[in-house]
Design goal:
0% strand; 83% helix; 95 residues; mainly alpha
Length: 95
């Protein structure tokens, strides 16, 4: 895993968390909360997706596929973690 891939995952995670927060107002944690949850989820999601799909290769096609995997894994991971935290927060508020 290179540092550029990790940075892409973190940025896409923050974007994914904020997009999910904008679409699902009930689970939103606010801009800062969505960004933090998204960054953490983006890093985790990107790593999990990278492990599942394999570690890429030296060819240009593998590099492009790896970039798309970083973007997708980061964005989806960020959105999913933000939603999970939003659900937990909502459940705790209803106690």
């Amino acid at each position: 895993m290179d540092i550029v891939g990790l940075i892409i995952q973190l940025i896409c995670g923050a974007v994914g968390g904020n997009v999910a927060g904008a679409l699902l107002k009930n689970f939103s944690l606010g801009t800062a909360g969505n960004s933090i949850a998204g960054i953490i989820g983006g890093g985790l999601g990107g790593q999990i997706l990278g492990a599942l799909l394999g570690g890429g290769g030296a060819s240009a096609a593998a590099a492009g596929s790896s970039m798309l995997g970083n973007i997708a894994g980061g964005g989806i991971g960020g959105a999913v973690l933000m939603i999970i935290i939003g659900i937990i927060r909502g459940m705790m508020a209803n106690r």
